[in-house]
Amino acid sequence: MPFALYPSSLQRSKCIVKPTLFIWTTILIGLLIIFNSAATALSFQNSPHLSIENLKKSMEWFTAEPHPMGSKNQSKLAADLKQTLNQFGLLTSEIKFKATIPNTDSPQFGGLQKDAFLTKEVTGYNIVSTIKGKSDCSVLIGGHYDTKYFKDFKFVGANDGGSSTVLMMELARVLKKNKFKENMLGSCNINFIFFDGEESVLPNWIDGENILKLQDNTYGSRDFSNKLTKNKNGKYIFEKKPIHLILIIDMVGHKNQELLITKGSHSEYSKLFIQSSNKIKIKEANFLMEDDHTPFLTLSIPLLHIIDWKNTEEWHTKKDTSDIISYEAIANFGESIIQFLSSKRI
């Protein structure tokens, strides 16, 4: 009998083990599928210089679908971006933040949910990628990677959001291989900050304040600037290094590119940047703008804000597609940034 019972016990054991193994295998496969769908690194040409092909590939990825802050598309894009920058060998992280935004499901804003609240809370993702330098300073290069929400048409933001994003990605890849002398700007830590939520949810920049008493713009840059701390010498720091300069870029890829350094930018660095720019049209502008640089203006940190505010015909329309983009113009601007980073620190 004991012998007769043994195979029966073994069979029962197998019956338990097989489903258990099947369940765990299914779970692991499911997790792998979820992980792969959540984050896909882009592949690039391994060129030592800014690559037109890489910029085009990044733009195709960026403009595949609209991706406003808080959307599933934006969460996926943030994961892809982080994975890609990690693949470059950069120290990359995401800084999550909560934001209260106008609720477009509300009938007041054209939504169809009768009982929807006027506001809702969403999660934003600032993506931060760092190239370690040998000097005790940081240079922040920032731009937004969200697209503006439009109910009535598909807005993919090739210039407004896309151009700065693809350039920053390609700059991060190339600058990882560059070596700068110790007194140069590029010898600082170079921190690329991809800001979420620059765009307003409501049609106009100030609608949120007028209707809801809510600042409906620059969510990511405001959150980032509010979290900056000072060292014992009273200097704002990032990753334990004093911030020497902040460079904010936006709308830099139009085929008729004419770049402006807006009012509020550091005068000496503005002139130095223009001197470093041989292949692009760029000049100082005598007007203020609100953009992702605005939250930093009160922090007494040298700052440059560069934008093309001459070519706005396609701005915030369905025509802001890759058709209006010059990848050569983006690359030439990128070369100017590299040349600028090769300048001595002021």
What structural class is derived from the secondary structure elements?
alpha/beta
Order of helices and strands: HHHEEEHEHHEEEEHEEH
Global mean pLDDT: 91
Intertermini distance: 92 Å
CATH homologous superfamily of the largest domain, by name?
Answer: Zn peptidases
What is the count of helical runs?
8
Biggest sheet descriptor? 10 strands, mixed
CATH class value of the largest domain:
Alpha Beta
Q: List unreliable stretches of 5+ residues.
A: 1-19, 32-36
Beta strands, count = 10
- Tell me the Rg in angstroms: 24 Å
Helix proportion range: 25-40%
CATH fold name of the largest domain: Aminopeptidase
- What spatial form do the alpha-carbon principal axes imply? globular
Assigned CATH architecture of the largest domain: 3-Layer(aba) Sandwich
Number of domains: 2
Strand content: 15-25%
Protein name: M28 family peptidase
Organism: Silvanigrella paludirubra
GO molecular function: glutaminyl-peptide cyclotransferase activity; zinc ion binding
Pfam family, one: Peptidase_M28
